[in-house]
Amino acid sequence: MIKLLKHLKNPSLYPIITALGLGTIIILFIPTLFHKYSIEIVDHQNIYNNQVYYSDLNSDGNSERISLKTVNKQYSYVNFYNKQNALSHVWNIRGAIQENIDIVIDDFDNNSYKEIYLFSTINDSLFINYYEYNESGTGNRVSHFITKISRRYNSPDFGVSTAKKLYDINEDNFKELFFSVYGKFSLHPRKLYSYDIKNNTIQTSKDNGIILEGLKTLKTPNGLIITGNSHATNYYIKNNKTEYKGDKGWLMVFNKELKFQFPPISFNSKDANIQTEFIHLDNTDLIIAHISYDFGLKDQKIITYNLKGRVIWERINHDKNIKWKKLLNTTSNINTDMFLIRKDNIIERLSPDLLTLKTYEVNNTKKSSFYSINFTNKNQNEIIQWNPASHTLTIHNNNFSNNISISLPKLLNNKITISKINNSKNNLCTIKDFNHWYLIKYSFNSFYPFKYFVYGLIYFLIFLILYLIQKIYIIRDLKKEQIIARLRVSSLKNQMDPHFTLNALNAVGSSILKD
């Protein structure tokens, strides 16, 4: 150590040490210039009482813009815009389109023209509407009654959760739409539905007292499996005669006939919340359930079940100081990744048997919402973190590295909706809440391959400048020393010249006298 310190005192090392320090500071001030990915806002709109979507409706490789507008409780319309962003045609709808319900866009009859499915209300009636897009604007328009809904404080008291795409469950080459309808404070309706689009018919599950939202679907060789998030309602409903009441939490899994895949599993607590995810492991389909409790009456759990309802693995959180927030499934076609988000700024990567493989430190996990979207069409999904307090959207990869953030100041809600624009070469996506809509571009940064070259160049240029400055000072000091030496020699000469002259005269005089 002492020898090392002596070497560091060597003046010739000063440019190297100083260049490393200054170069590091400069690089820290340009964190996004050479980031692996770049993110930017392409468009922003105020969408009060309006909704905006993008989708490739006619399979031509270009996404059309779709704008939904509710005029009043009796009338709404949908505008379609072509790839030149010009209005192409309008779909008029009776009733009010529900703003908090995402639409479904898919092709039920496989004719390369997608349909738009959305829900509307007229007084106390809920309808499913669909329209098949084509360039001429003459596609099929259908509106079908679903159920009566209750009202609370003169407003519809219900929610709808839809499967993200359509499924062909009876192998007739025509797909069906699955969704749940649930009264929020009202007991009815609380059912799971399937809509046979070809025959324009509705099938329902048995009525129960459970709110089922955030639907998840899994296509298996034996048919479709459906589940979702549920929670105990924690309030009493008079004359509740349903078999599965909301005074406790239930894990419910359905098959394609909307019957229970296995008997519902209860979590006997009035504050239970059940979040579910599907994973595929070693040719086996599994269900993972995260069970939490609002009042902390019981320990949190993560339980893995097979499709017969048998427990495979279980993990219990006995530490009251560590609160689990949610499971995040980033499973792609190849990778199976499950993350456990905690409220203490830690995210765990879980193994299939629910053990912690690795932990990541991520800021503001408690107040942030997390989503999983495949932006880049690669074999892993990106992890999206939305922090409503700072209005910041951050995109992480699965290793929580190369993260990049952008400010979306107009978004005010804790919950946002993220939709990728299909067939987009520029990796565009929409991000919106109830009042504002952003179109952002997430793409590979063309400067990234030159990252280390530029970093090295920064260090080299700083070193070169410091080295040249050091050399200039050294040369200047040498010149000063040379001038001082010449002056000293000149001074000595000036002192010695009279002495030698007198000695010479004395020597000459002495010689004359002697001779």
How would you describe this structure to a colleague?
By secondary structure, this protein is α+β, with helices and mostly antiparallel strands. The chain has three helices and 36 strands. The strands form nine sheets. Strands 17, 18, 20, 22, 23, 24 and 25 form a seven-stranded antiparallel beta sheet that branches. Strands 6, 7, 8, 9 and 10 form a five-stranded antiparallel beta sheet that branches. A four-stranded antiparallel beta sheet has the order 1-36-35-34, with no helix packed on it. The longest helix is centred in the C-terminal third of the chain and has 64 residues. The mean pLDDT is 84.
Brief write-up:
The protein has 515 residues and is an alpha+beta fold. Helix content is 17%, strand content 42%.
Layout of helices and strands:
Blueprint: H1 2-8, H2 14-28, E1 37-46, E2 50-55, E3 64-72, E4 75-81, E5 87-94, E6 96-97, E7 104-106, E8 115-122, E9 125-132, E10 141-148, E11 151-152, E12 155-156, E13 159-162, E14 176-182, E15 190-196, E16 201-204, E17 211-220, E18 223-231, E19 249-251, E20 254-255, E21 265-267, E22 272-281, E23 284-293, E24 300-306, E25 311-317, E26 324-329, E27 338-342, E28 346-350, E29 356-361, E30 369-373, E31 382-387, E32 392-396, E33 404-407, E34 417-420, E35 428-432, E36 436-444, H3 451-514
Antiparallel strand pairs: 1-36, 2-3, 3-4, 4-5, 6-8, 7-8, 8-9, 9-10, 11-12, 13-14, 14-15, 15-16, 17-18, 18-20, 18-22, 19-21, 22-23, 23-24, 24-25, 26-27, 27-28, 28-29, 30-31, 31-32, 32-33, 34-35, 35-36
